[in-house]
Amino acid sequence: MANSSTVTETKPGIAPHKETKPMLKIWIDGQLVDEDQAKVSVFDHGLLYGDGVFEGIRVYNHRILKLDSHLKRMYRSCDRIFLKPSYTIEEIEQATRQTVKVNKLKDAYIRMVFTRGFGDLGLDPRKCPRPCHIIIADKIQLYPPELYATGIPVVVAERPRLPIKCLDPSVKSLNYLNNIMAKIEAIEAGVLEAIMLNLDGFVSECTGDNLFMIKDGKIYTPPLSAGLLGGITRQWVIDDIGPDCGYPVTEKNLRIEEVMDADEVFLTGSGAEVIGVNKIDEKVMSEGKTGPITAKLIAEFKRRVAENAPED
Ligand SMILES: Cc1ncc(COP(=O)(O)O)c(C=O)c1O
What we know:
By secondary structure, the chain is of the alpha+beta class. The chain has two domains: 114 residues, D-amino Acid Aminotransferase, Chain A, domain 1; 161 residues, D-amino Acid Aminotransferase, subunit A, domain 2 (D-amino Acid Aminotransferase, Chain A, domain 2, Alpha-Beta Barrel), CATH 3.20.10.10. 27% of the residues lie in helices and 25% in strands. The strands form two sheets. Strands 7, 8, 9, 10, 11, 12, 13, 14 and 15 form a nine-stranded mixed β-sheet that branches. The termini are far apart. The structure holds pyridoxal-5'-phosphate.
């Protein structure tokens, strides 16, 4: 694909900096450095093996949405892969705030990455003396606003979601190839997202979002036991946004046929926020647009993040 923006030449392995953008400051292991100086070893096991964890967090009008929940999930993910960060959760919270501030970002997307750190070429994590901690805060490219009115088409991926016993999808690990392979199915079908089923044939989630369906005025979403990431946006919809709009949410295992037969389907995620689904494979959903209840939830989500996004 053609890329019209100008880039500066840099050393091999360093992301070129687009001259059209201000140089970002990246927080890496306690230091704020220019983006063209933010380097990770080629022996880093995050790079060599996807050995690490991450978070994606949005900033709305200087407020870091659900920062506390994201930090807790980050540290839970670390625990689950036996990675011991060198910084406390409070230190990482401060570093996150500092990174957003120093880059003068009002609305932003934060990517927090902890890797196992550098080691040798073998798998053994004990050969990695210290983890590597990275916080990037950058501007976010929003989906075009039309998509929130029209909804998006999705497909059902052939590729099943990883079973919990192999690598629990509730750990937000750097190992996203399972999702990427399903995302390629979506791209090949000309759509943005794919619904993934678990090995028992129940719906788990999408490649980068959680899934909800609405039937007869009630909202349903798969439980964590279906093998999915416990999304922070998902939990906000379950605990607050759904019930406050008059729609309680029930967690239950869903067959794809049930989802296709629903009145409305929507997805949630830090990137996508809340977005309707207007087609699944060849089945047109909610008359080919965002359903009316989904539209209410989207409006409520946008109102809450615009006014005073909660940081808890
Ligand atoms: C696989 C997957 N499921 C669901 C989500 C949504 O989670 P959250 O709402 O915490 O962004 C994401 C995005 O982080 C994801 O990558």
